[in-house]
Amino acid sequence: MSRTYDAPKDDRVRWPATVELVVTRDDVVLQRPEDLVFSVPVFHTVNACCGAATAYLLRRIAYRAGAYAPGIQEHIFHELNTSREGGSIEKVQRWFNGRSSTLAELGYRLQCRRVAVPTAPLLEWVRQGKGYRGAMLPTSFKRLHPGDKAAGRDAPDDAVGYHAVGVTMEQFDPKARAPEELVMVDPWPGVDGKAEDRAKVTPLVELAHKDRGLHALMFFWTGWS
What CATH number corresponds to the domain at position 77? Predict the structure, then answer.
């Protein structure tokens, strides 16, 4: 004896789809790195200025190249904020040579070159890099911050023997959507409140750089030498 089963009734009301996809690839606007408000903090240090300035530059360059992703590499960059790895231009150069392969494995195609050139052409080289270049300049703290006891009440200015600044191309005020310009980062702007840790490049930097023999480390993304 055969049995017949009735299919369960579907109480839902069928209705033809009325929504169409009207967005095409031509309607999509790609987001560029400069469309975002991205801020890199400046690490303040009195005895690792060369390294702190370098760490800032490497992050900014990597971000411009679309490769910066905070993670395990932050521990690597933080090494530069110590006097052991970032206390002088020689230490930073040695750090980079030892870490270049690790950075490459993380997707950071960063390059470094030590030079001794006048400040003006060095700044122009950074300007032409459109954010893919940066320079760390050892500087004289006294020349850059001539204020009385700018280094601190208990520390003479000469104690800041390895002062340095970093220079890169970026928006000085990202929220204002202003054109990019040369920006100088100073890991030790002093304690008298007359200077900022991130500011437009001052004319004083040329003489301060000259006092340190015009030495510098040039950083750039591969292909932007």
Answer: 3.90.70
